[in-house]
Design a protein that fits this description.
- With 196 residues, this protein is mostly helical.
- The chain has a domain of 130 residues: Ferritin.
- 66% of the residues lie in helices and 3% in strands.
- It has a two-stranded antiparallel sheet with strand order 1-2.
- Strand 1 and strand 2 form a beta hairpin.
- Helix 3 runs antiparallel to helix 4, helix 3 packs antiparallel against helix 6 and helix 6 runs antiparallel to helix 7.
- InterPro entries: TAT_signal.
- This is DUF305 domain-containing protein.
- It comes from Gordonia amarae NBRC 15530.
Length: 196
């Protein structure tokens, strides 16, 4: 057992206040802390630290649903733009008018399905969908005022299909199936409906 210093009782007997250290007007007296109190304090501090860490981890970035919705966003934008372009081209290109109306309908269905899935997964991301694409500019070369030809449109559709295929490979479940179906449908449009 350690030997403890004896308290100075002579000053107390003389009526002096107990000895303490003073810092800027504050009186600091020695703190008596039992082992049990120290253990309780340490446990409470570790519980607070663990809780703070888990709360911080919950808000560390976008959720999986948000990331998936963001992956689908360009597909929805492209579907809306493709539907508008196909509809505009169907008015001016007599050779492909009927096929372009079908393309417009199919791409509208793609846009609707993608928009619904994005909205279900993350409503803030759904607000970013461009449903009315800007008018395209350029030479009118046989395509009225759209500034794009059927050949240009085929190229753009091919790019849209590839983008959907990449999303399908990178996702799983329903989202992968949806993106895969869009990719296959767009490939069919290019190869069959708009065949040269």
């Amino acid at each position: 057992m350690p030997i403890l210093p004896m308290p100075d009782v002579s000053a107390r007997a003389a009526g002096a206040p107990p000895r303490s250290e003073s810092t800027a007007g504050l009186v600091l007296s020695p703190l008596k802390l039992s082992r049990r109190s120290a253990i309780r304090g340490a446990l409470a501090a570790s519980a607070i630290a663990a809780t703070a860490g888990s709360v911080a981890a919950c808000d560390s970035g976008p959720s999986a649903e948000q990331l998936t919705a963001e992956a689908l966003l360009p597909l929805a934008d492209a579907a809306h733009a493709d539907a508008a372009t196909a509809l505009a081209l169907s008015v001016t290109d007599t050779d492909y008018a009927a096929a372009l109306k079908i393309v417009a309908d199919q791409r509208t269905e793609h846009a609707t399905a993608l928009t619904e899935e994005i909205t279900r997964m993350h409503q803030d991301t759904a607000k970013q969908i461009v449903t009315t694409p800007a008018k395209e500019t350029g030479e009118t070369g046989g395509s009225g005022g759209t500034g794009i030809t059927v050949d240009d449109f085929r190229t753009r559709l091919t790019a849209s299909g590839r983008a959907a295929g990449k999303v399908a490979v990178g996702e799983d479940g329903y989202v992968a199936g949806l993106a895969g179906a869009v990719s296959a449908s767009v490939a069919s449009i290019v190869e069959v409906a708009l065949a040269e």
